[in-house]
Amino acid sequence: MTKCAALIVAAGRGTRAGGGVPKQWRDLAGRRVIDHTLAAFAASDRVGRICLVLHPDDMGEAKAFRKAGHLVATGGASRSGSVKAGLDALAVGPDGPPDRVLIHDAARPCVSPALIAAVAQALDTAQGAAPALEVTDALWTGAEGRVTGTRERAGLFRAQTPQGFHFAAIRAAHRTHPAEAADDVEVARAAGLDVRIVPGEERNMKVTRPEDFARACKLLEGHMDIRTGNGFDVHRFGPGDHVTLCGVRLPHGRGLQGHSDADVGMHAVTDAIYGALAMGDIGQHFPPTDPQWKGAESHIFLRHAVNLAAEHGFTITHADCTLICERPKIGPHAQEMRTVMAGIMGVGVDRISVKATTSERLGFTGREEGIAALATATLVRT
Ligand SMILES: Nc1ccn([C@@H]2O[C@H](COP(=O)(O)OP(=O)(O)OP(=O)(O)O)[C@@H](O)[C@H]2O)c(=O)n1
Ligand SMILES: C[C@](O)(CO)[C@H](O)COP(=O)(O)O
After folding, report:
1. N or C end of the chain: which has fewer CB within 10 A?
2. How many domains is the chain partitioned into structurally?
C-alpha cells in the first residue's frame, strides 16, 4: 500500500467565521479545529508524513507540531500560495519528496477516515481524485434580494477536500499555474491532469461561517468516545521534613512514605487516566518491586499515562483531584499544583482542578496517619 503525504493548509484568517481568532485555532468539542483535522490524518494508515501550513503570525504554534514529528511551512497570501509552500516543504523534507499527496483544508475537521482512505485508494489508478457531492437544491441567480434567474443543476458538484494527486505532477502544476485557483483540482485540470470524483460526505463540511461551529460540534460529538476514569491513593506519614503533593514540595513536620516520592495526588490523577483508558493502574506499569522506581519523581508516571492516552488518540479534557488531609493546608498551594500538573499533561490550567477537604478529624486522615487523594479524568477521542 503506497502511503500519501498529507498537506493541511491552515494559513487563512477565517474572516467569515469571525470570533476574534482564526477559526483553525478555535475550540470545537473540546479540541482546536486544527487538532481534529490533524488527528483524522494522523490516525489513517494511508497517511505517512504530515505537513501543516501556518500563517506567519501563528508560527509560535509550529514548535509543538514539529515536536510531534510533523513538517511545518509558512503559508502564502492565498490558499494556492499556502499549498505551494507546503508542497515545497514536502519536496525537501527529511524523507525526500513523497509519491502522493492529499491536500486538505484545516477548516474541514469532520473528515472521516473512510473518505481519506477512498481518495488515497483512487490514486492507485487515477492521476487525481477528490470528493464531491452532487448539487441537490435548485440553483438561482439573484441580486438585491430578488431571484433573477435559474440555472441547470445537472452535472454540478460541491467540491470538498482532501484532494489527492501524484506529488511531482501537482507540484509542477502549481508552479506553472498563472493565477489564483479555487482549489487544487482547478490547478490540476489546467495542467491537463484527469481528476476522478470520489463520493463526498455531508459531514465533511467546511467551517466557514459562525453558525458552522455548532453543526461541526454536533457531528464530532456524535462520533466521540468520551471516557471518565477515577483514581484513589493513600500514603502513610513517617519521618521526614516535607511532602510532595501534585508536584509541589511543601515543608511539613513529617513525610509521606512510599516506594516513589509518594505524591498521593499525582498518583490518583495518573490512575484516573489509566482508568479512563481501561489500561491498568500505576502499580502495573511501575511495579513497586522494581528497584528502578525507588524514590522516583511521580511526574514520570503521569507523563507515561498522558503519552499512553495520546498514543491511543485521546485528548485529556479535564482532571479533578481532591486531597484529603488535616494538614498541610492545600488552599494556598492549589494554584501552583494545577499549573504543575497542567504543564505535565499539556493542557490549559483551566482544565485541571485541585481541591482539598479534611475528614473532620475522623479516620486515618483525621488522625493524621496519612493522606488520601481521589481523582477523576475525562478523555475524549474523536
Ligand atoms: N492564505 C490562505 C488562505 C486559506 N488557507 C486555508 O485554506 C482553507 C480553506 O479556506 P477558507 O475556508 O476560505 O479559510 P479562510 O481563508 O481562513 O477563511 P476566510 O476566507 O473566511 O477568511 C482553510 O483551511 C484555510 O486556513 C490557507 O492556508 N492560506
Ligand atoms: C478547496 C475548497 O475547500 C473546495 O471546496 C474550497 O474551495 C476552499 O475554500 P474557499 O472558501 O473557496 O477559500
Report:
1. N
2. 2
